[in-house]
Design brief:
five-stranded antiparallel β-sheet; globular; 3 helices; single chain; 203 residues; alpha+beta
């Protein structure tokens, strides 16, 4: 009888430890990112998308730019390897990918991306002739929001891009270890929730 009770206590202890571990992980992650090193903030241009997703409704589908990186030399990466895209802002304050590296490096803001085997630019009339063009896919493709606001937000993004009626920027926090968090969307410099509120009568 005593042995049975001991087994029950052991099982209960193991169960509580597993629950504590599951709960502590998101808490540690929140503390790490919200109270740790301050992230770098980048603004990425959004491109036009034609999504088909029957489960959409609580997020805005995005197509972040750039999707191509042109480098002077060929990188010695394995096929289909994920690499880190090194980020810098251009003169307009818009994020650009300026290099691809295997691991995060001190002093460089970078985010993990899949890349596709490069092609050499051979057109002699192209000023980039002789360089290597890498196709990449930035991971900021979904911005989650209240399901009542998401459709209006997606319409606003679509109108800004398709009608050439403004710009859409994806505001992203980039952490030193290559992780990221989408902070906001901006239409013509206005946060998306504020933009929807200001344009309710015209929707």
């Amino acid at each position: 009888m005593l042995e049975l009770k001991n087994k029950k206590w052991i099982l209960l202890a193991l169960f509580l430890l597993s629950v504590a571990a599951g709960v502590s992980y998101p808490v540690i992650k929140i503390i790490r990112y919200d109270f740790g090193t301050r992230p770098a903030v980048y603004r990425f241009e959004a491109g036009i998308v034609d999504p088909y997703d029957p489960f959409r409704g609580r997020y805005v589908t995005l197509s972040p730019l750039p999707t191509e990186v042109i480098l002077e030399e060929e990188k010695d990466f394995d096929d289909y390897e994920n690499v880190y895209a090194v980020l810098e802002n251009d003169g307009r304050g818009i994020a650009q990918v300026v290099d691809l590296i295997e691991k995060p490096e001190s002093g460089k803001d970078a985010v993990l991306v899949p890349y596709y085997w490069p092609r050499v630019i051979q057109d002699p009339t192209d000023e980039e002739a002789g360089k290597y063009s890498y196709r990449i896919r930035l991971p900021f493709t979904r911005f989650y929001m209240n399901e009542k606001l998401a459709p209006a937000a997606e319409r606003a993004v679509d109108e800004a891009l398709r009608r050439n009626d403004g710009t859409c920027m994806i505001v992203v926090n980039i952490y030193k270890d290559g992780n990221y968090a989408i902070k906001d969307l901006e239409i013509n410099g206005t946060p998306i929730r504020q933009y929807i509120e200001e344009h309710k009568e015209t929707d």
